[in-house]
Amino acid sequence: MTTDAAPVPLLEVQGLTKRFGSLVANDDVTFTVRAGEVHGLLGENGAGKSTLVKSLYGIHQPDAGRVVVDGRDERIASPSHARDLGIGMVFQDMRLIPALTVWENIALQLRDTPRVLKPRDAQRAITDASAHYGLDVDPSALVRDLSIGEWQRAELLKVLLAGARVLILDEPTSVLTPQEADALFDVLRRLTADGVGVILIAHKIREVRQIADRVTVLRGGRTVLADTDPHELTDAELVRAMVGTSVKPVSRRPEPTDETADAPVVVSLRGASVLRPTGVLGLDGVDLDIRAGRILGVAGIAGSGQGELADLLVGVAPLRSGSMELPGLDARGTTTGDLRVAGVVDVVANPVHDYVVRGMTISDHVALWEATTAGRRRFDVRGAATTFARRDERAGLRAADPSRRLDQLSGGNIQRVLLTLALTQDARLVIASYPTRGLDVLTTERTHALLLEARDRGEAVVLVSEDLDELLALSDEVVVLHHGRVAGTVPAVDADRDRLGLLMTEGAA
Amino acid sequence: MSVLEKDPPKVVEPARATASGQPFWRRLLFVVAAYLLCLAVFAAFAATQGADPASIFTTMLQSSVLDWGTLQQTLVRSVPIVLAALACTIPARAGLVNVGGEGQIIMGSVAAVGVGLALGQAVGGPVAWLAIVAGAAVAGAVWCGICGFLRVRLNASESVTTLFFNFIAADVMLYVIYQVWREGDATSLPQSEPLTSDQLLPAVGGLQLTLAVPFMVLVVVGVWALLKYTSWGFRLTVAGGNPTAALRSGLPVRRILLGSMLAGGALAGIGGALNVMGAEGALRPGMTATFGYVAFLANFLGGSRPFPVLGAAVLFSAIANSGNGLQLSEGLNGSAVNVLLGLIVLTMLVVSGRTKEAFS
Ligand SMILES: Nc1ncnc2c1ncn2[C@@H]1O[C@H](COP(=O)(O)OP(=O)(O)OP(=O)(O)O)[C@@H](O)[C@H]1O
Ligand SMILES: [Mg+2]
Asked: Can you tell me the distance from the alpha carbon of A120 to that of A127, in angstroms, rounded to the nearest whole number?
């Protein structure tokens, strides 16, 4: 009864438990990672996926359980220890140093960094590796100038050149367009062909189907499915494993209409330009009418002016030239405070950086929201729990308990709190930037439904997304931004995808 | 019926495990050992200076807190330190670094004497006290507020400007002592004209414990309540915790930052006034004795929380006071205690760096 037929797995996790105070984030988790596989780690928001991989990368110390690397029991004390064991991780919030070039960032990380950096050697090693894995990125570019896709590729190179044989990716695709995600999967296939084992956290079933060889599903911190071939399961079974209940088929979305095409204009931009902090124009002479009762989709490759448009509409970024009229708003002025009171709310693109206040509870954030949207100077933290419970019931996003600290929630659960506030506001104008980023399947569905409900109530909705499917399914019309200019406006009914793609990459003809 | 669980997934009996993976007792052991080592190093230092390491600590305790008389001195002396430490606390909540407690105390003291002299013999008692405190508060607020203004308008680092303003304030005080309110002739010790005895704070309880001490406690409680229970304090915490979030919520972030600097400066100014009315009676070169810098450390040690800051400030005041005892009975230079102060701050840095929970 020898077992030498089965190769030793790269990584074995047995009975891993991790608590935060009285909260059990991981409860007796068991799974294995083999050489040459992509192992999907799935589960709804707050299931404990990030916590689990942080334990494997030495950021958290588990309270119980074993981690076996290459057949040896290890207590992974720190990230550098993890790297020594051949475990690498790409975080969702990127960890490169923006002021340095790509090769400098990578050279700093290598195990045998020479005392004096040799640019030529380092750059050659990087160029070789990027060719080998198909990770296209210019080694001498400054990191701060990279697009998010390039940034992620640089991060991957860094981890691979540090000698990772187990590669952990925490929701890498949530910031990527579907095309970029496909390119990433090609890279992952080359890596697994070299014998690397990949742990991939993802929420989209489509992506799991595309790339995962085996999956492990967590729910409430426990393993409900371990090391399973996803092809043995139907989509419905996969989703049931994640959320623990069978999902009712979602009611068909209403078709986009032209009936509201001449609905009242809420905000009107004429020749609107906005400067970036770097001094270049982020938004450049944009004409746009945002109408009540319609969803205006905003498409474009990352950094084409979506952020500046959102900032302008909420009054955070000043106009450099052009005009912004607010015929549909009863606003006292154009400061952020005035606009909020007049019913302009937004779901920020990066809530962790731009919304979460360190150390504060959900109730605190709710009190801040209620006061600033009502134009009150008094903050009612005690009453916040009640109003939030009402909003939570109405939104149905199952937000966390209001007494919890927002900065300690999982990424998706932070997003749920913000969505619960913004989409139950009965606003005049909602700017939703990447609203479903990091959300699990069910919550994504529910959020889409809430956006449509807001539209049907007569709110003007601006939806920024990198996912064309999402944009076309929800929007009444889609405006394409390219280098800060409007490249074209396309009705969402019978939209021509190829034309949209061309507008995004090439701009107006 | 939905079986969907809400986040949090599940609750079990509380465990005292920390994110850094160390059990509680090991962290405690580390902290205790660190501070014992700190005291040991100081004892060794004292021994090299010819003092008896066995008795210095009892001497220090005797000359700072164990004796009713010296305890009063310690408390009186802590008044300007506590107030100037709170002057760091409030801006720190808004994410600003006020290193200018020293200058703000000085400007408060100058204003206090100015108001007192202007009132002269005619006005004394509570009316004079209030007027003097108000004048000092305005002076401190203006001094700190200028730096706040430079910060929110020109983005000039407040930690640098407040520091510079300390040196300017010191010169302003010397100028008024020598040129404006000089008392006596050129041969006597330089000092400004004093407040009238009606303008000095009366003693309560003991001989030296003036009204300034209970007033200081009142201020600490007030600042605590302000930060914890008022909308003003809430706004401050939001602006300090995440300025972008505050801006995007439509809060007037610049006004909030400026307000925190004005409030901080006012407190330090009041500290200066209480020091003049309760202890000094007049302006004298060097009278503030680096209170402002010690206060900065006290705020740091207290983690910008009013009550711990109060404790730290009184501790520092006690250490400073114990220098007298060391000088008298151990033959050590009184400033030797500054070594202990430095060691404590160093230890505290190490301890907090080592035991901080690793969030990521
Ligand atoms: N540092 C922390 N302190 C306290 N609780 C924490 C901490 N980190 C995570 N948690 C809690 O542990 C649970 C699991 O969080 P985790 O981030 O692992 O979820 P996740 O599966 O990655 O979810 P998502 O899909 O939203 O990213 C959540 O309830 C979260 O609030
Ligand atoms: Mg996560």
From this structure: 10
ipTM for the complex? Answer: 0.85
Structural domain boundaries enclosing A380? 344-425
Only one residue has tokens 């929420």, namely A203
CA–centroid distance, B11 to ligand 2, in Å, is: 20
pLDDT of residue A279 exceeding 80, the answer is: yes
* Backbone φ and ψ of A172, nearest 5°: -70, -25
Cβ contact B248–A377 (<8 Å): no
> Parallel, antiparallel, or unpaired: how do β-strands A429-433 and A460-464 relate?
parallel
* Rounded-to-integer distance, Cα A177 and Cα A179, Å: 5
How far does the CA of residue B227 sit from the closest CA of chain A (Å)? 13
Nearest of B259, B288, B256, B286 to residue B271 by alpha carbon: B288
In a domain, A432, yes or no: no
Which B positions 3-32 lie with beta carbon below 8 A of chain A? 3-15, 17, 19-21
Q: Tell me: the pLDDT tens digits for B60-97?
A: 887 777 778 788 888 888 999 999 999 999 999 999 99
Is the pTM value of this prediction over 0.80? Answer: yes
The number of C-alpha atoms within 13 Å of A116 and in the hemisphere containing its C-beta is: 2
Please, which pLDDT band fits residue B12 given cuts at 50, 70 and 90? very low
Domain count, chain A: 1
Could you tell me if residue A385 is inside a domain?
yes
Question: Within a domain: residue A418?
Answer: yes
Instruction: Report how far ligand 2's centroid is from the alpha carbon of A437 (Å).
Output: 11
**For ligand 1, mutation pick of B5, B6, B7 (most atoms within 8 Å of CB):** B7
pLDDT above 90 (res A176): no
pLDDT in tens, A294-336: 999 999 988 899 999 999 999 999 999 999 999 878 878 889 9
| Chain-chain contact of A19 with B245 (C-beta, under 8 angstroms) | no
Reduced to 3 states, what is the DSSP secondary structure of residue A307? helix
Helix (H) or strand (E) holding A349: none
- Considering only CB atoms, which chain A residues are within 8 Å of B10? 23-24, 27, 220-221
Q: What integer pLDDT is reported at residue A94 of this predicted model?
A: 63
Report if residue A438 sits inside a domain: no
Given pLDDT bands bounded at 50, 70 and 90, which one contains residue A115? Answer: low
Nearest CB to B358; choose among A48, A59, A315: A59
Tell me which ligand sits closest to the C-alpha of residue A415. Answer: 1
Q: How far is CA A353 from CA A17, A172, A411, in A?
A: 29, 18, 11
